[in-house]
Specification:
By secondary structure, the protein is of the alpha/beta class. Helix content is 42%, strand content 14%. The chain has eight helices and five strands. It has a five-stranded parallel beta sheet with strand order 2-1-3-4-5, with helices on both faces.
């Protein structure tokens, strides 16, 4: 079944996690631009969209932790065997919420993640999804031990209100992109299949203290839009 997933027609899973659901959201705009370009390249392909702010993924509970610990002790298990490990209604409920989300990730050939920076890291909405789909062993082939997401492509459309690039005063405060890179690598996504586009200084136009960086912010946003367009045509 897993090999069939890898050779199926293209499937794009698109996640938005910005609390700003208006046209002013940079990550939503960048993600939408990539999705339009991707769909133009893959007419008739399957497109799945989740707004993690409009429909939040529930935080993992004690039942999830108990079930995950029990499953991890068994090694990598086929998803269809996890239900047999549940003990009690709390664990059954947790698995009922988790299984569709994990299945969705495994079925995607491209995962598009809109990720704004909140307080130096990712949003709570995105973190809740990450915690939920990261069920132990869910992305490892039970027979071979190979990562099931090795060929999955991941595009992160990111934004931050300030500047966090090399040489800036807040360079060491960027826990957004390093975290996402480390997370997807841990999940089994190959390094060459991960692409990150980030617009910086997106608040320079409306925060007085950042006003002198407005031109830099505009250039960064223009560059991000261009990069997303190029990715949509080739990745």
């Amino acid at each position: 079944m897993d090999e069939a997933v890898r050779t199926q027609a293209p499937v794009l899973l698109h996640l938005d996690s910005s609390a700003d659901r208006s046209d002013g959201s940079v990550t939503r705009a960048l993600g939408a631009a990539y999705a339009r370009g991707w769909l133009a390249r893959h007419p008739g392909a399957e497109y799945r969209y989740r707004d993690l702010t409009a429909e939040p993924v529930p935080l993992v509970g004690e039942g999830y932790v108990r079930l995950g610990t029990r499953a991890e002790r068994q090694g990598a298990l086929p998803l269809e065997k996890v239900a047999a490990l549940t003990e009690g209604t709390a664990e059954e409920r947790e698995w009922a919420v988790t299984l569709p989300l994990v299945t969705e990730v495994r079925a995607a050939t491209t995962l598009l993640v809109g990720a704004p920076m909140y307080n130096f890291s990712v949003s709570a909405a995105l973190k809740a999804w990450i915690d939920r789909v990261s069920f132990p062993g869910a992305y490892v082939d039970p027979d071979s031990g190979r990562p099931l997401l090795a060929r999955t492509r991941v595009v992160v459309a990111a934004a931050c209100g300030g500047g966090y690039g090399p040489g800036t005063p807040r360079e060491g405060c960027d826990f957004q992109l390093p975290y996402l890179r480390a997370y997807f690598a841990q999940l089994g996504v190959a390094e060459e299949n991960l692409r990150v586009v980030r617009a910086e200084l997106t608040r320079a136009g409306d925060i007085p203290a950042l006003g002198r960086f407005r031109e830099l912010g505009e250039r960064s946003l223009a560059g991000a839009r261009e990069a997303v367009g190029a990715l949509a045509e080739s990745f």
